[in-house]
């Protein structure tokens, strides 16, 4: 089955977000990229802009985390603050690499008119 991604592209200057769907051979160049990678905007049909991958989630809603290497699911300990104090909670997360299991990829515009 060919990959299918929903791209959420944020524009920090205007504060607006645009949603674009990538399917099939158009989505293949994203496979293997990691959080923090910069891609060309021509991938989505907008030449002249550069996009940085900031995160994402899989089909179950499990978020990607930059500190976990690869495209695996993993439990990590997260510090959670409350009014009473601070506790450590186990949280299921995905790695920082885009794979076929990822559904949503979050991006932001880093440069325009390049």
- Assembly of the depicted chains: single chain
What is the number of domains?
A: 1
Cα gyration radius (Å): 16 Å
Low-pLDDT stretches: none
User: What's the arrangement of strands in the largest beta sheet?
Assistant: 2-1-7-4-3
Helix content: under 10%
- Put simply, the count of helices is 0
Structural class: mainly beta
Topology:
Elements: E1 4-11, E2 16-23, E3 38-40, E4 49-58, E5 73-81, E6 86-94, E7 102-112
Parallel strand pairs: 1-7
Antiparallel strand pairs: 1-2, 3-4, 4-7, 5-6
Main features:
five-stranded mixed beta sheet, 114 residues, 0% helix, two-stranded antiparallel ribbon
Task: Give a verbal description of the structure.
It is a single chain. The chain is 0% helix and 51% strand. By secondary structure, it is an all-beta fold. The protein has one domain (4-112). The chain has a five-stranded mixed β-sheet with strand order 2-1-7-4-3, with no helix packed on it. A two-stranded antiparallel sheet has the order 5-6. It is globular and about 50 Å long. The model has no long low-confidence stretch (mean pLDDT 91).
